[in-house]
Amino acid sequence: MKTLIAVRCQALDDDAYRIAHDLKDSIPGDVQIAYVRDERNVNFDPISEWGGGVVVPITKDYLTDLGLFWRRENIGWICGDYVYYAVLHLEWDHLWVVEPDVFLAGDVRKLFGEVSEMDYDFVGTRIWERNDSWVWYDKIHRVWPEATVWSAFFPLTRVTREVATACYAARLKISEMLEADETLFVPNDEAVVGTVVNNFGFTKLNLMDKYKEEFRYWGFRPSYCYTNFSASTSPIVVHPAYAEEKFIERVAADVDRSIADGLLKRSLKHATPEQLKQMMSKLS
User: Fold this and answer.
1) What is the mean pLDDT of residues 173-201?
2) CA–CA distances in Å: residue 22 to residues 97, 100, 109, 227, 231
3) What is the residue-wise DSSP string for 49-65?
4) Which residue of 4, 178, 231, 251 has the fewest CB atoms within a 10 Å radius of its CB?
């Protein structure tokens, strides 16, 4: 059984390398790495290998060759499943797609070793049936009205080649519809993959159900600093996790956006680090 880890990234950097090799070290057997880099709007120097793996560039020409719609600026953010189709030409039986803001703490080899022995078609998190209150519901429903809408969170997923091929077929149909009708919105990766997996009857494992403790720091928000987990001896899978400098920048930006009262902002800027620490300790 051949396993490929595909890191969905915008840069070949320390975080891409870290998660690729941390995950590879946690999965038994024949495991290879691919870095799938979004190059649609940036001219990078051509490179075929980096960081112990192959580099697969996502360009406008490559997406055109694959028959995938790309004429919206947010495609790189919302269509993470394009990574599945970008590596279909490579040899693999199981494909893990992971994002650089995932962090593996402690010894997670037992967890991923167990999952490697499980014969599920799809492995992921937050695999839920959705109703029309979900922001992406209408986007997928308009292009696939007969389907029951599901979601699957996208920072960490594992698919078989059969699942990836089925998702690709769905995306090709959606791409044709988007080219023909500019009023349609592009459904995101969570909606397309979750809906394909559940409407086509593929077997699935929600990691958050089986490994609740290990995934207790997993979600869309809040942000975490991964260096704060580095000393952990218990296995933890964290998302979103950032290096300290980026973590501070992101949280500070969130606080700045959240504080509409200019007087409160001035008070916080006036406070000493120790005073800020004490204020934080009093938050409910």
Assistant:
1) 97
2) 13, 11, 10, 14, 15
3) EETTEEEEEE-HHHHHH
4) 231
CATH T-level fold of 2-214:
Spore Coat Polysaccharide Biosynthesis Protein SpsA; Chain A (3.90.550)
Residue ranges per structural domain of the chain? 2-214, 246-281
Q: How far is CA 51 from CA 4, 26, 30, 158, in A?
A: 14, 17, 17, 21
What share of the chain has pLDDT > 70, as a percent?
100
Sheet of 122-129, strand order: 49-50, 53-58, 30-38, 2-9, 94-98, 150-160, 122-129, 204-206
Tokens describing residue 33: 């790495």
pLDDT at 167 over 80: yes
The one-letter amino acid at 208: M
Dihedral of CA atoms 188, 192, 194, 197 in degrees, nearest 10, equals: -160
Q: What global pTM score does this model have?
A: 0.93
Q: Which two tokens stand for residue 266?
A: 């001035």
Q: What is the DSSP letter of 122?
A: E
- The residue among 261 and 75 whose pLDDT is bigger is 75
Under the banding of pLDDT at 50, 70 and 90, the label for residue 69 is very high
